What does this fold into?
Amino acid sequence: MFHKVFDRVIGHEGGFQKMPHDRGNWTSGVVGQGELKGTKFGLSAMTYPTTNIEALTVDEAKMIYFYDWWRPLNMDRFHSSMQYQFFDAAINHGAHNATKMMQRAVAVNDDGIIGPMTLAEVNKMDINDLLMLFIAERIKFFTQVSTFDEYGKGWMNRMAKNLELAAEDN
It folds into this structure.
């Protein structure tokens, strides 16, 4: 399942960009501080400050996604339809925010830690309901981001595609 999920995420994240007003492009995570190295395949200089972002290959990105994201998030514990949705959110918003979105979707305390209570509620919920509620949480999150006016159309197109993929996966 990882390979399918990775291919989908890469389809959203795209190639190299080096925008000076995007904090993720800076090694410090603060605009104008550190080195402007950019973002590629959804991997940012802010998260990977010692990586040569521009020279990053798809295969290298795939290894990073697997070892730094898929395995630590223990993605195999989720329904296959939820794996892409949660992984995409973790890459896009950070694992902590994605976890809180999932917790709000299943109506448990949103502490950002997937523990036994969160997993029990996730596993108890109908998968279609979980997918819809989780994507709704992502949309709410996006609309609160200060750059929504600038990037919101693209983000909503991403969510529309995620809804299509959720239907395809079920």
User: Anything to note?
Assistant: The mean pLDDT is 93. Helices lie at 2-13, 58-70, 80-93, 95-105, 116-124, 127-144, 148-169.
